[in-house]
Prior knowledge:
The protein is an alpha/beta fold and 135 residues long. The chain has a single domain, classed as Leucine-rich repeat, LRR (right-handed beta-alpha superhelix) (Alpha-Beta Horseshoe). It is built from two helices and seven strands. It has helices at 70-75, 93-107; strands at residues 9-11, 31-33, 56-58, 85-86, 89-90, 121-126, 129-134. The strands form two sheets. It has a five-stranded mixed β-sheet with strand order 1-2-3-4-5. The chain has a two-stranded antiparallel ribbon with strand order 6-7. Mean pLDDT is 83; it is low at 113-117.
Amino acid sequence: MHVSCLIFKLVLRNNALTTLRGIENLKSLEGLDVSYNIISNFSKLEFFAGLPYLQSLWLEGNPLCCDRWYRAQVFSFFSYPERLKLDDKEINTCDFWKRQIIIASMHKRPASFGIYVPTKDEVVIEGGNIRRVHN
C-alpha cells in the first residue's frame, strides 16, 4: 500500500543546512522556513520557481541574506513575486525594480522602466553591485 500526503508547511530552521536539495519535489508547499541555516548561494534557490503554491518563505539568518540585493534576487526566481512573502514581508517598490534589473541582465536586455532610450553606457551587475561600463 502506498500512502501519499501533501506537505503544506515545512520548518527546517536552525539545522546548518547548506542545500535544499529535494524540496523541489514538494509541489504542494505553501510555506517554507529555512531561516538560520548556512545557505550561501542563490543558485541553490532557483528551484523555487517550480513551487507553484509557495506563498511564504523565510530565509533570514542565512549568509546569502547579507547580499545587498538579497530580496530582489530571491524575488527574481518567481513569476508572480507579489504572491510571495519573504521573511514575512511582501515585495516593495525598490525590490520590484531591482528584480527587473536582475531579470533584464539574465536576458541581456534593458529593464523596462517605461520609455527606453539606449545609451552608450552598459550597466553590469556583479555580486549584487551595479557598475556602469563606458563604451
